[in-house]
Amino acid sequence: MKTNQKKAWLFLAPTIIFVTFFSIYPILRAFVMSFQSGSLINMNWTGLSNYQYIFHDPEFWRAIRNTILYALISVPVALAISIMLAWFMFSKVKHKSFFETTFFMPYVTSTIAIGIVFRYIFNGEYGLLNFLLRALHLPAPNWIDDPAMSLTTIIIFGVWTSLAFNIVILMGALRNIDPNYYTIADMYGASGTEKFWRITMPQLVPTIAFLLTMNIIAAFKIYTSVYALFNGQAGVGNSATTAVFYIYNKFQIVGTPGVAMAATVVLFIIIMFVTFLQRKMMKKIGGR
Fold it and tell me: Which residues cross the membrane (predicted)?
């Protein structure tokens, strides 16, 4: 038994070292740096001054507000659309593998590249989206240059980019549902809606819980989409700034790594708290 344990630790050692060096150490280092000020090569202990700064900075609260709104809107909307599309493909569409590959392509494509394309689609003057809206005699807002539309633009883009991963995972979960459930339901004359809500959805609860966790964490870390859509900026007047964009700006542009790390610690705590609440909620739902 002891020999097997030694061998197990030997095989686990590279992974443990890797995770410690690239995951655990940066978290601890960021926590220490949040109590320091100065440049990276000459940081001095200043206590809670960085936390006092961010808590009194309106830009920080705008970033947190935008991030929370983005997560609260984009995650459930994207997940609901993903479930509907996955169920439709699973139950109605032939050649599912072709459509799965098509939906998965955006996931393996650079977000920057997709963002550049969407920047032209969202263009207020010659963008494809406004062209379609005008053709339907609907209002055509300035998606990129109007501060009031910045967050909406990011949410639309975030919903679209998250569909790929969600649909592929949901399709895998749907395939693992025992078809005998549906056979018995057909014998008792169950409708498609009844089969979906009484068989499919309960079976998908663990997968939905997983996707909720992954999507919430990704939503709170949103940065690349903002950078790509607004050409390296956070929208007009920083209207599209997010928590990670705020951290990047304070660390790389302003040159105050201590402030950036304080914001990082706060964001980390928020993500942990929201993830904890989400998992508790899904456990209660699954328990029913």
Answer: 9-28, 68-90, 102-122, 148-174, 204-223, 258-277
DSSP letters for 133-161? HHHTT-----TTT-GGGHHHHHHHHHHHH
The DSSP call for residue 254 is S
Q: Which of 283, 258, 243 is nearest to 60 (CA)?
A: 243
Query: Any idea what DSSP says for residue 106?
Result: G
Superfamily of segment(s) 48-284: MetI-like (1.10.3720.10)
3-state secondary structure of 242: coil
Distance CA 215, CA 201 (A): 19
Closest CA to 141 of 232, 150, 70, 119: 150
Say what angle helices 128-135 and 111-121 make with each other, to 10 degrees. Answer: 40
| Average predicted confidence (pLDDT) for the chain | 83
What is the per-residue pLDDT across 125-145, written as a single tens digit (0 to 9) for each?
777 888 888 888 888 888 888
Q: Which helix (H) or strand (E) holds 58?
A: helix 58-92
Query: How far are the Cα atoms of 20, 166, 183, 190, 201 from residue 193, in angstroms, in the given order?
Result: 48, 21, 15, 8, 11
Domain locations in the chain? 48-284
| Cα gap 90→172, rounded to integer Å | 10
Residues 270, 220 contacting (CB under 8 angstroms)? yes
Residue with tokens 């105050």: 256
Q: Is 43 helix (H, G, I), strand (E, B) or coil?
A: strand
Low-confidence ranges of the chain (pLDDT < 70): 1-4, 93-100, 103, 107, 284-288
